[in-house]
Design goal:
By secondary structure, this protein is mainly alpha-helical. It contains 25 helices and no strands.
Length: about 575
C-alpha cells in the first residue's frame, strides 16, 4: 500500500498522451534555485543603483536617538563624498582627453593619475561629504534635543504651503513632485516644459509625506542653522581660489529661493524680474570691464574680451583716455598693426598718433574717447560692423550652445528622441539658434550704443564749434542750446553702465524658462564687482580671511531652509541636485 502511494520518478505508462506537463523534482528544484538567484541578483542591482541614483519619492528616515542620527549622517556623508569624488574625477578625465594629443607622451600618465586621484577630486569629495554628513546630523538631532512643542506656535501655523499639501487639500499632480528625480528640465535646454500652475500646487503624494515629517518634527530654523554650520565648515576644504566662486553661487541661489518663497507667501510678483536682474548686473559688469577691470575675475575679463570681438588695444586706449585723458603710443601702434585694417582707419590713427608725439606745448590726444577706428579697424562703417560682429558671435557660440541643447536631449530624452527624432532635432536646432542669437544681439546692442554715442558727441562738438553755421537742423539747434556738461555725459564713464543696461534687454531673445538661470549666472559677478567698488570707497566693511565661509553660511542657510520647507521655490536643477546628494532628510 505504501509503495502504491510513492510518487514515481517517471510518469506512469498510459495508452494515450498525458494531459499534463511533468517536471521531475530535480529539474523543478534547479529551476526554483535559478529564480531565487535571479531575484537576489536583481535585488543587489537595485541596492547598488541606490548608491549612485536616489529613487523618486523616498520617504524620510525616522530616527529615535543621537546614535541613529550619527549613523545616518555617516552613511549619507560617505555616499555624497564618493559620488562627488567620482563626478569630479570623471569631469577632470574627460577634459584631459580633449587635449591629451597635444601633451608629450612622457607626461600623459602622470596627468591621468592626477586627473583621477588628484587633490582637486579629494577636496571636492571632502567638501560635499562633510556638508552632507554634518547637515544630516544637525537636522535630525535638533528635533531630538529641542523637540517641537505639542501646540505649534504661530510661526509654524503660517506654513500655508504645508497645509495646502496635506491630505484633504486639493488634488495635486503626482508627477510634479519637487523631490522626484525626473529628467532635469533645466538641463534639457531644447524642450518646452508643460505649463504649470502656481507654485503652491506642485507637491505630489511622495513629497507630501516629507512635508508632514517636516511639519511634525522640525522647526523652520533647524534647516537654516544646519545648512549654515555645514556650509561654513565644508567650504574650508576647497582651495582658497575656488571658495569665492562657490560662496557667491550659494548666496545667489539662497536669494533666489527666499525671494520666490516670500513673493508666493505675500502674493506679489515683479513682472520680468529675471530680465531686470540681468540688465542691472550687465550694467555693472560692462562698466567694470571697461573702467574697473580689477573688480572682475581675470578669466571673466578675458571671456568678455573674446566675446566682444573688439581688439584688446581698444579697451586699453578707452580706459586711459576716459580716466586719464591720454593713451599710450605703443597701444595705438599695436592697433595700427591689426590684420585687415582699412586704409582710412589707418590714416586716422596715424594722425592721432603723430599728434600725441608732438612737443609738450603742442601735444594733444584728441577727444577723451576711444576712436571707432580702433574698435573696428577692419571695417569703416559703424553700421556694417554690427552685422559682421553679430554673425561672428553667433557662429562662435553655435557649437557651444549646440552641445548644451543636443547632448542633454540624447542623454535624458532618449525615448522621445527615438519616437520623434525629427521634431526633437528641430527643437534642439531652434533652441541652439535662439541661444546663439541672444549673445549676438547682446554684443550688437552694446557696440551700436558705443559707436552711436561717440559719433553723436563728435557731431555735437563740431556743430558747437561752428556756432550752428552748418545748418538749421534739429541737431544743430540742440547743439546750440545744450550745455557743455550734457554733451560730456555721452563720453563719461557712467555712460558705459547705461550701455550694459540696454544690452541686458537681449535676454528677451532667449527662451523664457532659461532667463532666470542666466540671471543667476551673472548676479554673482555683478555683486562681487559692486562690493569691491563699494569697499574701495569705504561704504562697506571688509570680510577678512573668513569672508567666504561667512557668505557660504548665509547662502546655504537660505538654500537649505527653502529646500527643506518650500522646495518648489528652488530652481529645478538645484532642487534635484540637492535631493540626489541629501535626500529628504
Amino acid at each position: 500500500m505504501a509503495s502504491s502511494l510513492r510518487t514515481p520518478d517517471s510518469p506512469p505508462h498510459l495508452g494515450r498522451a498525458p494531459s499534463y506537463i511533468h517536471f521531475t523534482p530535480r529539474r523543478a528544484m534547479a529551476s526554483f534555485e535559478n529564480l531565487v538567484v535571479l531575484a537576489n541578483y536583481e535585488e543587489h542591482l537595485r541596492e547598488a543603483r541606490k548608491v549612485v541614483w536616489r529613487d523618486r519619492g523616498e520617504k524620510p528616515v525616522e530616527l529615535a536617538d543621537l546614535g541613529e542620527c550619527f549613523e545616518h549622517a555617516c552613511r549619507g556623508g560617505l555616499r555624497a563624498g564618493t559620488l562627488a569624488f567620482a563626478i569630479r574625477s570623471g569631469v577632470n578625465f574627460i577634459l584631459l582627453l580633449t587635449r591629451i594629443k597635444r601633451i608629450p607622451k612622457r607626461f600623459r600618465l602622470s596627468l591621468i593619475r592626477h586627473a583621477l586621484f588628484g587633490e582637486d577630486s579629494l577636496r571636492f569629495a571632502a567638501m560635499l561629504g562633510s556638508f552632507v554628513g554634518l547637515y544630516k546630523f544637525l537636522l535630525n538631532a535638533l528635533p531630538i534635543l529641542l523637540p517641537q512643542p505639542q501646540h505649534p506656535t504661530t510661526h509654524a501655523r503660517t506654513r500655508s504651503l504645508f497645509r495646502a499639501s496635506l491630505p484633504g487639500a486639493p488634488d495635486k499632480s503626482a508627477a510634479d513632485s519637487p523631490f522626484d528625480d525626473e529628467l532635469l528640465e533645466d538641463a534639457e535646454l531644447a524642450l518646452t516644459p508643460p505649463k504649470r500652475g502656481s507654485r503652491h500646487a506642485r507637491l505630489s503624494a511622495s513629497a507630501q509625506a516629507h512635508q508632514v515629517w517636516v511639519r511634525k518634527r522640525t522647526r523652520r530654523w533647524y534647516s537654516a542653522f544646519a545648512g549654515s554650520v555645514a556650509g561654513a565648515v565644508a567650504i574650508m576644504f576647497e582651495k582658497q581660489s575656488r571658495r569665492t566662486g562657490i560662496a557667491q553661487q550659494m548666496f545667489v541661489r539662497g536669494l533666489q529661493g527666499s525671494f520666490n518663497a516670500l513673493s508666493d507667501k505675500h502674493g506679489f510678483k515683479i513682472p520680468h524680474g529675471d530680465v531686470i536682474v540681468f540688465t542691472l548686473c550687465c550694467g555693472q559688469i560692462m562698466y567694470a570691464f571697461l573702467m574697473r577691470p580689477d573688480t572682475l575675475p581675470p578669466s571673466y575679463n578675458k571671456w568678455i574680451q573674446v566675446a566682444s570681438k573688439v581688439p584688446e588695444e581698444a579697451v586699453k586706449i578707452n580706459y586711459t583716455l576716459v580716466r586719464e585723458g591720454y593713451f599710450r603710443p605703443e597701444d595705438m601702434e599695436r592697433a595700427m598693426q591689426y590684420p585687415g585694417i582699412t586704409p582710412s582707419n589707418y590714416a586716422y590713427l596715424a594722425d592721432r598718433l603723430a599728434k600725441s608725439r608732438l612737443p609738450e606745448g603742442l601735444r594733444t590726444f584728441g577727444p577723451h574717447v576711444v576712436p571707432c577706428e580702433v574698435v573696428h579697424p577692419d571695417i569703416d562703417s559703424c553700421l556694417t560692423v554690427q552685422v559682421a560682429h553679430f554673425w561672428e558671435v553667433f557662429r562662435w557660440m553655435l557649437p557651444i550652445y549646440g552641445a548644451l541643447h543636443f547632448i542633454p536631449m540624447m542623454l535624458f530624452r532618449r525615448r522621445k528622441f527615438l519616437e520623434r527624432p525629427a521634431r526633437m532635432l528641430l527643437r534642439a536646432a531652434l533652441g541652439t539658434a535662439r541661444s546663439s542669437a541672444f549673445l549676438g544681439v547682446f554684443v550688437v546692442i552694446y557696440q551700436a550704443f558705443f559707436c552711436g554715442k561717440h559719433n553723436l558727441y563728435h557731431k555735437l562738438s563740431a556743430l558747437r564749434a561752428s556756432g550752428g553755421a552748418s545748418g538749421r537742423s534739429l541737431l544743430a539747434a540742440l547743439a546750440k542750446r545744450m550745455p557743455p556738461w550734457a554733451a560730456e555725459l555721452l563720453i563719461s564713464k557712467y555712460s558705459f553702465f547705461v550701455g550694459g543696461l540696454l544690452s541686458g534687454l537681449s535676454l528677451f531673445v532667449e527662451e523664457k524658462r532659461r532667463r532666470e538661470e542666466l540671471a543667476m549666472y551673472v548676479l554673482p559677478k555683478g555683486l562681487e564687482s559692486a562690493w569691491v567698488m563699494a569697499r574701495g570707497k569705504g561704504w562697506v566693511f571688509g570680510m577678512g580671511r573668513y569672508g567666504d565661509a561667512l557668505l557660504t553660511a548665509i547662502g546655504m542657510g537660505m538654500v537649505m531652509s527653502t529646500y527643506q520647507n518650500d522646495p518648489q521655490h528652488l530652481s529645478g536643477l538645484v532642487r534635484r541636485i540637492l535631493y540626489q546628494f541629501i535626500g529628504p532628510n
